[in-house]
Amino acid sequence: MNKIKSHVIYAVLLIVLSSATYGETFGDFEYDVKNGEATLTAYKGKDLNITIPTSIKDIPVTGIGTGCFKNNNTITKVIIPQNINGIGDGAFNNCKSLQEIQIPEGLVSLGHGALNGCINLKKIRVPKSATWIGSHVFTG
Q: Can you give the pTM of this predicted structure?
């Protein structure tokens, strides 16, 4: 019986570890990888203009995570590549210097309050592919 329990525990552990996320750093970005795709989780740089990477270490970047750029008062322009399909809740919350964000076709979801508090935002185009837009995206 103990042998069966140990095999079951081992199998569960293998399943958990194979689907686990892990945090990494790439330049000024922090990111997590899950199921072979990367989501940016934080930006630590000071650049005015940012182009989101299409891939990191041959792993496609498909998301900008919750609060990734929150309270960054340096960035003025963000270019998002076509492979990004989701922008998380509050991803650009309170980025007071942000004036322009380029979102291409392919984006599916724009999280709650994603651009909340971006008081100097002058230019944005939400693509037709965005099938889910959260509440209070442009509040403030």
A: 0.81
Distances (CA, A) of 80 to 9, 21, 86, 98: 42, 23, 11, 14
Residue 79 is classified by DSSP as E
C-alpha of 103 from chain center: 13
Angle at 139 between CA 136 and CA 140, to 5 degrees: 160
Instruction: Answer yes or no: are the C-beta atoms of 71 and 95 closer than 8 Å.
Output: yes
Nearest to 27 by CA among 8, 14, 46: 46
Q: What is the pLDDT of residue 8?
A: 40
pLDDT tens profile 37-85: 999 999 999 999 999 999 999 999 999 999 999 999 999 999 999 999 9
Q: Report which secondary-structure segment, H or E, holds 10.
A: helix 2-18
